Structure to design on (623 residues):
């Protein structure tokens, strides 16, 4: 529909952002035929685009403005002053359209932390029904089941009829997928249990957001929007950039939103909202929309000439991200890696034809090889871990007394010491990564080192470093300033270094050991951009500082917390100081969780839809 047709209607709910969370809300709220829903999405509708549908072509969407916002961070002191490219989906479906398809689960303590921080109803048991609601678990075929350990999955904990299809990758099985779980067991990892049990320590092939029947990405545009696109009470306008939320003039008390101003087709438009405005712009755009609308730090808004509606300096703060440190290592020539596709256009074309024609080949294969590692597993020789962790936390708190008003650090410190909780997610990728290209997401896996390479990625699970996202202009077309403050907390660098040393040690164990290419002295072979294998903690810290990028899991910039503890929204997702504005996306996460966060975004959006509908927890749980 045209922008003119869109604004001819008024809607009960106007949703700002047709991404992962926004389309969940649109589908669930429009289930009631008496409710009208309008969605504004800045990106295009690219349903049936092979670059999105093919499970392993996501890199081809990065840094292309028809798919990606192409955000950049400010230079990061903690990562050798590097700028980091942050690929975020600017397309119907948001980042669920361009992510790795990796599907993991928050731990029990991750979500119980949320409740302990003041968010009643958001603990692990509260969220379990929503994980089941959004998903359909597809067991592997007999052929695939014979190759992988899928026995850790408990089908009783999994959804059977939700929109998002999750599966083990049914594509051509790669050597790394066979070698990884056995290597982890031989390295002393425990046999993994279903992460839905509340803990995920161990190494395994994890599930993916891929429909095994169609071999296509399962994402919010495909599976929440497309089946419901014909509803007469649901309108979606793409290529529509939100400029600001409009508020009722005058009055006292909480501000009342009346509509949303946006740009489309080169003109400015305003759409009316009869009940609520729901912001689903993601971790970067949601705080930007609030600040553009006059909700944020009074001094910051005055500096850019924006009229203050609600003075809340917490907006845009608490940016928290999983860092990912990549160690690339050479493997023997007989073990194919993605370099063969990246360097040979003819082979890449054949692979593309195999996917388009037969839904087969390497482009049908999403990454699956992952592991979650506790501190005791990563560094069993650490003397007095409790004293070590608590000293790093308390020393930082003393030097920065205003840095943690919510009291997150003690919770995270306790969690880091728990042997059932992970300090790192270790991922094996069958491609080399040149971290010197950190400013360009699309070039991260482009390099000229000859031969075949893997990258052992050591990804944080519970970072304590916190940064910010803020506007510096009233122009909605201008990107906000993104500062994740990587490694500003010394504990993050300490744990990254221990994780790196542990990940390298995995190459000592079969069957991964015999796959590695070695020099004349029997040592591992590094690419030119990593000078040497680190052997001490200080050397590993140097490697972390110079070889870290984003894991694309930012959270927290509109945190769900009590306002006096740094909150932007309450436990009903409602923005403080307003009567009818909510935020629903990863920006409301008060703390990060282990692993890939897409599953939690779906669960949060499902819960938020029930909150908006007025459903109680007892109704959701069938009581």
């Amino acid at each position: 529909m045209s922008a003119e047709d869109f604004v001819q209607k008024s809607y009960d709910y106007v949703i700002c952002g047709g991404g992962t969370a926004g389309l969940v809300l649109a589908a669930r709220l429009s289930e009631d035929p008496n409710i009208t829903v309008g969605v504004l999405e800045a990106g295009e509708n690219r349903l049936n685009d092979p670059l999105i549908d093919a499970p392993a072509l996501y890199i081809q969407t990065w840094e292309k403005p028809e798919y990606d916002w192409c955000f950049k961070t400010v230079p990061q002191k903690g990562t050798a002053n590097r700028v980091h490219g942050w690929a975020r989906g600017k397309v119907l479906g948001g980042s669920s359209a361009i992510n790795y398809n990796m599907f993991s689960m928050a731990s029990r303590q991750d979500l119980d932390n949320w409740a302990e921080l003041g968010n009643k109803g958001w603990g692990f048991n509260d969220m379990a029904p929503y994980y089941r609601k959004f998903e359909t678990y597809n067991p592997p075929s007999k052929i695939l089941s014979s190759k992988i350990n899928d026995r850790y999955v408990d089908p009783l904990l999994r959804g059977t009829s939700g929109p998002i299809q999750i599966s083990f990758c049914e594509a051509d099985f790669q050597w790394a997928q066979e070698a990884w779980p056995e290597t982890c067991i031989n390295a002393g990892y425990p046999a993994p249990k279903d992460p839905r049990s509340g803990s995920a320590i161990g190494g395994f092939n994890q599930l993916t957001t891929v429909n095994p029947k169609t071999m296509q990405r399962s994402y919010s545009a495909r599976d929440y929007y497309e089946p419901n696109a014909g509803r007469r009470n649901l309108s979606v306008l793409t290529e529509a950039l939100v400029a600001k939320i409009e508020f009722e003039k005058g009055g006292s008390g909480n501000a009342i939103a009346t509509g949303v101003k946006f740009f489309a087709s080169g003109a400015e438009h305003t759409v009316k909202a009869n009940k609520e405005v729901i912001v689903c712009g993601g971790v970067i755009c949601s705080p930007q929309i609030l600040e553009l609308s006059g909700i944020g730090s009074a001094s910051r808004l005055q500096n850019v000439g924006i009229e203050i509606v609600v003075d809340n300096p917490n907006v845009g703060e608490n940016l928290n991200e999983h860092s990912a440190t990549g160690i690339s290592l050479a493997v023997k020539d007989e073990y194919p890696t993605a370099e063969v596709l990246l360097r040979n256009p003819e082979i890449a074309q054949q692979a593309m034809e195999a996917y388009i024609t037969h839904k087969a080949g390497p482009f049908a294969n999403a990454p699956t090889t992952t592991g979650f590692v506790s501190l005791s597993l990563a560094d069993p020789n650490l003397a007095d871990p409790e004293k070590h962790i608590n000293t790093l936390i308390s020393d930082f708190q003393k030097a920065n007394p205003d840095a943690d008003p919510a009291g997150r650090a003690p919770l995270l410190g306790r969690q880091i010491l728990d042997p059932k909780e992970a300090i790192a997610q270790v991922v094996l990728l069958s491609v080399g990564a040149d971290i010197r290209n950190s400013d360009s997401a699309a070039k991260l896996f482009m390099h000229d080192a000859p031969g075949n390479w893997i990258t052992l990625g050591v990804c944080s699970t519970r970072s304590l470093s916190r940064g910010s996202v803020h506007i510096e202009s009233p122009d909605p077309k201008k990107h906000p300033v993104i500062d994740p403050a990587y490694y500003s907390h010394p504990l993050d660098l300490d744990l990254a270094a221990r994780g790196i040393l542990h990940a390298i040690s995995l190459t000592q164990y079969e069957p991964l050991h015999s796959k590695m290419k070695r020099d004349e002295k029997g040592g591992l072979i590094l690419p030119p951009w990593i000078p040497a294998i680190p052997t001490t903690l200080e050397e590993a810290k140097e490697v972390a500082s110079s070889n870290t990028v984003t894991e694309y899991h930012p959270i927290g910039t509109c945190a769900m917390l009590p306002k006096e503890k740094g909150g932007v929204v309450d436990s009903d997702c409602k923005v403080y100081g307003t009567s009818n504005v909510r935020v629903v996306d990863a920006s409301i996460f008060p703390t990060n969780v282990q692993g890939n966060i897409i599953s939690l975004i779906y669960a949060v959006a499902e819960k938020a839809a029930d909150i908006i509908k007025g459903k109680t927890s007892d109704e959701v749980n069938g009581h």
Remarks:
- The longest helix spans residues 490-505.
- The first strand starts at residue 11 and ends at 16.
